[in-house]
Amino acid sequence: MLQLPRSLKIQRDRASRIDETPKAQDTLTMSYARSKGQHLQALWFPCLLAVLILLLYGPSLRFGLIWDDPTWYQQGMGEPLWRILLPLPTFQFYRPLAILLNRLLSRPDGTVRIQWAHFIQISAHLGTVLLSIPVLQALGFTRWHARLSALLFAIHPFAYQAVAWQAPQQPLALLFVLLATWLAHLFQSRGQAIFLAGSLLTYGLGLLFQESVLPFLFLFFWLALLASPQRDKRKRLWPLWHTALALSYVFVWLHVPRHAEITGRGLQLRVLGYLLQGWAYPLAPLANKLWPELTPLQLVVLLSALWGILALGLSLLGQGKPALLSTLWAITGIAPVWIGLSWHYACVGSRLLYPAIPGIAGLWAGWVAQALVSRKRLWILLGGSLLFFTSTTSAVQQWSCFQRLYQIGTSHLQETIKVIGSHPGGHLLFINFPDRLELRPRLYPLGFWGLTLAPVIQDLSDYALSTTGQAAETRSLSSFVTGWHARESWPYRVDMRGENAPPDRLFKAAQWADTVYLTNYLPNGSLELCAIGTVLPDQALPATATFGDRVQLVHYKTERTPRGLLVKLLWRPIGNARSGDTIFLHLLTSEGRYVRGRDGDALGGMLPLESWQPGWLVYDYRFMPTQQLPEGSYVVTVGLYNRDNGQRYPAIKADGTLAYEGELPIQTISFPASHSP
Description:
Shape: elongated
CATH class of the domain at 538-677: Mainly Beta
Number of helices: 21
CATH topology of the domain at 538-677: Coagulation Factor XIII, Chain A, domain 1
Largest sheet: 9 strands, mixed
């Protein structure tokens, strides 16, 4: 056979490749386009979820510190790293990585990186939701079943507290679980030991972060059982490494001291009923309306039956494994809470259900996914569509309720923090400040549904100190009578800080304070913090006017604000006031026509004249809105009258002359035309 020279062979091969290059390029181009299209198709839904989560939870970056003791972030400060890895005697749980994270969120001056704390919560929820899609697919869900589960997980109402509040650890803990599961899946599918090592490391870090990671050990065994039957049985035993980690953690956890009032009082039926409400969140509010008197036992039976119907129905449709996995996941998520926590602790913690939510979402989403693939079976299509509509609209509606309430409460707390931080070293008394705010009517039959804002056991100054680094000394009291009608008609139910104090006690407390602040509950559902005055020692200052034989006006001052006029009146008691005696503040036109007024007892209505004590001056602040007033001059007048009979007391000026009809003019104010909106 004739052999070609080597040079001719090279030329022939080169020419052959040149001839084939266009075809190869076309093939590569088509393959690249197809691959790019598949990637784009796979990414559009996660991108949509990411945008949705950022829109829902982005506003919580402005919420600031909520609820918890802000000084808790100092837990373990000054301790070496090795000491944090051991159980701390000041903390009842073994969560060294959570302690370390809080240390990183604390600045050297003691303030807290609050926005970073909120950012971490939002990012953890975002990562958990997005990672749940491939993890659920690896565990046996179809693509759309996993996607819809992630969607319902993202907007589940029981997740709101866990994400919007800066302190909960459930989102990060579940992120560790999902990441460890995904790495274990990669190990099982590719056989590379580095993925198993990564899974073990991630699971171990999750255990050191929070104990709720522990029971999700079953996910690794579920993965191993899904492996091909032909696979070597010895290669299915890799979850035993995770089991060894879990047992080691349990040994340490059992030797950590605990507070009996929080842990160790579980298996309460009310706690189980409370958690099951999250299983059936689209229909549990309906039960609250139809059967408001359900006992915890009846509620548990009703909600368990509903869950059973959903799971059994999904199994009959050929989705037995996803239905079983969803049920096991949900049970795994709630079991530690029911077993280990008391009703007092659990009833305010919807965040505690967060680890169970992917399982809950998986069952509801399974019906929707079946509706997408069962177009010829009308009843499945209608049922799945109805469940999808019910679950999503219910979640969004409940989310909007929580979002509005959190915005109102946290804005009020932030305003208070600014006030406290601007009076370093001062004494401030807060009256009727909200401890917690609850939706009205309640969303579910059991539990607290609202915002725990600033518990009375926590000093308000701690929030200011952890936010601004400056703080005043603060006290909190309540006056149940003051603003009672406004609170009764307010959209939310409120528990206020401090015990109810009668006027004589409030008078004494005001003597301690540089300024007294009152929280007003406005008809539109918002809150207003008002400086209402204080009580000062009498320094024998001359009087501007005397009203009957009751009080003297010692000093007055008016201040314009963007919303109106602030009038500060300094009063001295000189005689025994009668029941019903009170003060009026009027705004009159230059012709003497009444325009607006602020009548009532001193300090926002809390101190009637009969509670005033000799030797003290009452500094009373009254705000009068002036929006929409026509251009012109106005006269501010004050006086004293008895509300029971309408009788005014004579007003005698310092020069001995009588004010007309007991109405003392104190200042004339002009409003230009530009004042009117």
